[in-house]
Amino acid sequence: MNPLGLGCALGLASLPLSLDAASRVTVEPDPQGGWQLLRNGEPYVIRGAGGYRNLEILRAAGGNTLRTWGAEQLGPDASGEPLLDRAAKLGLNVLVGIWINHPRHGHDYGDEAMLTAQRERVRAMVRRYKDHPAVLMWGLGNEMEEDGSDPRIWQELEVLARIVKEEDPDHPVCTVLAGTYNDKLRAMQEHYSSLDLLGINIYGGAETVDDALAAQGWDKPYLITEFGPQGHWEIASTDWEAPIEPSPAEKAATYRGSHEAVMQASRKLCLGTFCFLWGHKQETTATWFSMFLPSGERTPSVDAMIEAWTGSPPPHPAPVIHDLSADFREKRVAVGGEHEVTAQVTYAGEDELSFEWQIVAETKDRKFGGDPEKAPPAIADSVISSDGTRALLRLPSEPGAYRVFLTVRDPHGGGSTHNFPFYVE
């Protein structure tokens, strides 16, 4: 199956992994400088995505690795097939996430009973999955360090890494941190010597990560384990604190630019990247980090990664929304008025596009660190008329914060979505 029609013309072999033989993966110095990842003795550069859906598209797009965060994501899909088996059949490898509990979720790193239970859970998970051929490495924790000031967390990661290595000496251990701020790597290195690869989740400023790591004395291999558009916590907001989401065109440029910048860093320590999110989720909006629409279409961000991984665009690039214009964009406006909105959209094909305009309430369930959020409702009867890139909208009669959304779809599985906030008073 090749859902993008890329095929062998781009040199993308999709040979399945043998389901009978576990792999052996090592991290070793590269004779030409820096470090390299070897899978069964062969160099392996990660072209990865964070997520566990749309795997056929990932493989067709030139990706070779996916990343998970916890054991629950390895279970069977609707067909009953476990994730690792699905990945192996497509020739994909997995950075298998082992969830390590966060203090902000109530985990006490001074509580011996909690620590013992977590150690037993980690050991059991490694024993269960270590011999599966799709396992590439272990992702021991994700952003559990918070500000990095509690040495007990680093000390416990050292204990857990030794457990993983005791159970499985054939796959490296990677621990994922939230950025490089607070000089946290210096504290980590003091207490956590068994780490094989560092994982960094970074959004704005991904191109500077190598310099930031060097400044804290990190000269070992690392991965960019999440990257994408600027986060809602690091971008301009309205006066009512609604973050202003980048356009699909801006997001696509950031995905490709960030990947290329870190892979070309002069120290040659980055062994691969994972774009985020190879799927969709509600986080501030339903679209901020979603590389796919909720209805399944791939966005220009996916197309950007196809070009980064293969050197060529897909046969049918998705439509791209560059901008939305309205006299009430990012402003306060009276209830119930009628206003026109226009969009700037480009599309390389000649097919007819579909346009969907909506007004959606601003979320009232904002969370921290990617924790699950409830999606806010769309406002009924808000579209008076629409003609492709132009719509006449009726603003809500209830005061509050809202967003205008436009979603554009093509007939080849591509789509694009953009929004802007406004406030009714």
From TrEMBL:
Q: Which domain of life is it from?
A: Bacteria
* Keyword flag Hydrolase: yes
Q: Where is the Glycoside hydrolase family 2 catalytic domain?
A: 110-228
Q: Name one GO molecular function term.
A: hydrolase activity
Pfam families xrefs:
Glyco_hydro_2_C (PF02836)
Q: Name the keywords, alphabetized.
A: Hydrolase
* Alphabetical list of SUPFAM superfamilies matching this protein: (Trans)glycosidases
Q: Which InterPro entries match?
A: GH, Glyco_hydro_2_cat
What is the protein's given name?
Glycoside hydrolase family 2 TIM barrel-domain containing protein
What lineage does the source organism belong to? Answer: Bacteria, Pseudomonadati, Verrucomicrobiota, Opitutia, Opitutales
